[in-house]
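Q&A log
Question type: sequence-to-structure
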Amino acid sequence: MRRNTLESYGSVARTLHWLTALIIVTNISLGLLAVRVPLDQMQTKVQLFSLHKTLGIAAFAVALARILWALTQQRPVPLHPERRAETFLAESVHWILYAAMLLVPLTGWIEHAATEGYAPILWPLGQGLPLVPKSPALALTMAHVHHIFAWLLMGAIALHVLGALKHALVDRDEVLGRMLRGKAAGGAGASHHVLPAVAALAIFLAGGGYAVTTKPVAEQAAPALQQAASDWQVTQGELGFTVAQMGAQVQGSFADWTAAIAFDPQTGAGDVVVTINMNSVTIGTVTEQAKSADFFDVGNNPTATFTAPIRPEGNGYVAEGTLSLKGQQMPVVLPFSLRIQDSIATMTGQTRLDRRDWKVGESYADEATVGFDVTLSVSLTAQR
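Response status: OK
Response body:
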């Protein structure tokens, strides 16, 4: 029998129930394993997260199908309506499970859509979502909500399993039999109540509120760099970089940097010293990894410095000097364009670097996870 009755579950409901259970238990295992894989095994970690995300979308689709089917069916009545506290708890757990089956994968999906380039979903669709911008802050919030809701789901599953075992081993009734074999059991006089749904809603609202108000915050930034003495004072500017991560171009930037500039517009000659606060780097949800010893090693190398003379070349200019980063000093050529009007200079420049020259990400010996080439871009406005 495909359809539910007041005494039993139909074959469709039972199939969706056990399929959902299989997917969720598998995906919880994948998620717990992925977070425990160390960063020096990043390729394995990324593959596990990709599987976790892909299976999460499958779980969302199956759960949605299950809920839509349930809305068209009768709900089998409680087997022991006289046990009011037990019945209330059982129905509350069911409502929590229904909500979590949708909200856990959905919040994870939003986190993924707000993130650039990390652990792609293993099919062409779903990398982005409508109305979800690329936003590290949104991704961090959704990651924490996803984490809290996942623990609510795991707690509800544990209570659900314990309840089923109690009915099978202690009460020796047909509660489990109704879902295993479609066994008919229970009386037609019992009914469901709305309070368990209200309780489940309150639990998720509390969990969501807790997740949002206690989400992790970015590590305390190092003291801001003191403005360097300069013939040209930088009034605004951006220092950013782009790198391939899992085949996708991901943008990062440095929020705190200074430039000491000496430049003669008449000859086109001068020099520049740029100092970068490496702890001010942001690159989506992998910002903390970028600060780690394997990448910028911010703890031991809090600043980077680019020192270069400036000369005219062709229709523009070139700053050709040395970039000191992570204890390594390597030559860098930065071509740039410059426009000066009324003692206001506007400059834009771009160059390509190889991260391996500065021993950044040494454990990533191929480009499957993190590309070798890094495009560095700078733009600024300075007043003489």
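Response note: The chain has two domains: 11-213, 233-383.
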